[in-house]
Specification:
α2 packs across α5 and α2 packs across α7. The model has no long low-confidence stretch (mean pLDDT 90). The chain is mainly alpha-helical and 278 residues long. The two termini are 26 Å apart. It has one domain: Mitochondrial carrier fold. It has ten helices and no strands. The protein is globular and about 60 Å long.
Length: 278
C-alpha cells in the first residue's frame, strides 16, 4: 500500500516554524554547551557568558542549526506522521525512526554549533580552540550514539507522553478547556523528558567539545566509557559522593531549552493544522 504524504499544514509547520524556533533557542543551546565545560558556574552566569559579546553573540553558531532545521523539522514534523502510518499507528516506533532521521540531519550542524560556542569561550579564557570544526554536512562523529538516544527521549514528550498527560489532566480537571489541556499536557510531558535527557545531552556536549579538543592535542586518551564516567562524576557528584547542585542547574538549562522547542513547535503545528484553508 503506498504511503500517503503528510498534509500541507504539517509540511508548512516544519519548513517555516521549525527553523524559527530552533534559531530562537540558540542562546539556551549555547548555555548548555558552556555548562558541559564548566561545573562551577550558575545558570545565570552561563547565560551572561553567552551574551558577553553583545546580544547577537548569544546566537553564535545558530545559523548552522537554522539551515539544518528546514529538513530537520520536516523530519520531526511531517516525516513523523508518515512514519507513524508506516508503523501501523505506533508512536513509539515512529519516534524511534524520527530520532534516527533527526540525527542524520542535525548531528553535524549541532556539533559545529557546540564547537563554535566552545571556541568563543576558549578565546575568552586564553585556551586553545578546536582547530578542525565538525562539518555541518557530516552526520557522524564523536557522540553520535548519545545524540540518537537524546533525540528519542527529547521527542517522546510531544509524540508519546503528551496524550497520556492530557488524559490525566482531563480526569483531574474535567472542566478545563481542551486547548488549555493540550498545551499543559505538552508542557508537563516535555519538562519530564527534558529532565531525563539532561545527562545524556551534557555528555554529548562534552564528547563534541572537550573530548574532540583533547584528541586534537594528542597524548593518551581515556576510553569513551572511562571518559564518560569521569565527566559524569565530576559534573554531578560532590567529593563526598552526593548529588551536586550542578545536576539541578543542568536540568533547569535543559528543560528551558528542550521544553521550549517542542512546546512551541507543538503549538505551531496544531495552529497550522487548525487554521489551514480547507
Amino acid at each position: 500500500m503506498p504511503v500517503k504524504l503528510p498534509d500541507p499544514p504539517y509540511i508548512a509547520a516544519g519548513a517555516i516554524g521549525g527553523p524559527l524556533v530552533i534559531y530562537g533557542v540558540t542562546p539556551m543551546r549555547n548555555a548548555l554547551t558552556l555548562g558541559a565545560m564548566d561545573a562551577s558556574k550558575s545558570a545565570l552566569m552561563l547565560y551572561k557568558d553567552v551574551f558577553r559579546g553583545g546580544f547577537m553573540s548569544g546566537f553564535a553558531g545558530g545559523q548552522y542549526m537554522m539551515v539544518a532545521a528546514v529538513p530537520g523539522f520536516l523530519v520531526i514534523g511531517p516525516a513523523f506522521h508518515m512514519y507513524k502510518e508506516v508503523c501501523g499507528g505506533s508512536t513509539v516506533a515512529a519516534t524511534l525512526l524520527t530520532s534516527l532521521s533527526e540525527t542524520a540531519v542535525f548531528f553535524g550542524s549541532e556539533s559545529r554549533n557546540a564547537q563554535v560556542a566552545y571556541n568563543k569561550d576558549a578565546e575568552k579564557r586564553g585556551a586553545k580552540p578546536i582547530a578542525k570544526l565538525q562539518s555541518p554536512y557530516v552526520p557522524y562523529g564523536s557522540g553520535v550514539g548519545l545524540h540518537i538516544v537524546r533525540n528519542y527521549l527529547a521527542m517522546s514528550g510531544l509524540r508519546v507522553f503528551s496524550q497520556p498527560c492530557q488524559d490525566v489532566i482531563e480526569k483531574a480537571c474535567p472542566t478545563m478547556a481542551s486547548g488549555t489541556r493540550t498545551i499543559l499536557g505538552d508542557l508537563v510531558a516535555n519538562i519530564g523528558v527534558s529532565a531525563l535527557s539532561t545527562p545524556i545531552h551534557q555528555l554529548y556536549g562534552f564528547s563534541v567539545t572537550h573530548r574532540v579538543a583533547a584528541a586534537a592535542e594528542g597524548g593518551v586518551q581515556a576510553s569513551v566509557l572511562e571518559a564518560s564516567k569521569s565527566f559524569m562524576r565530576s559534573q554531578y557528584l560532590t567529593p563526598a559522593g552526593r548529588l551536586s547542585s550542578v545536576a539541578l542547574r543542568d536540568v533547569f538549562l535543559r528543560v528551558a531549552y528542550n521544553a521550549s522547542i517542542f512546546s512551541i513547535y507543538g503549538a505551531i503545528e496544531r495552529g497550522f493544522v487548525a487554521n489551514w484553508p480547507k
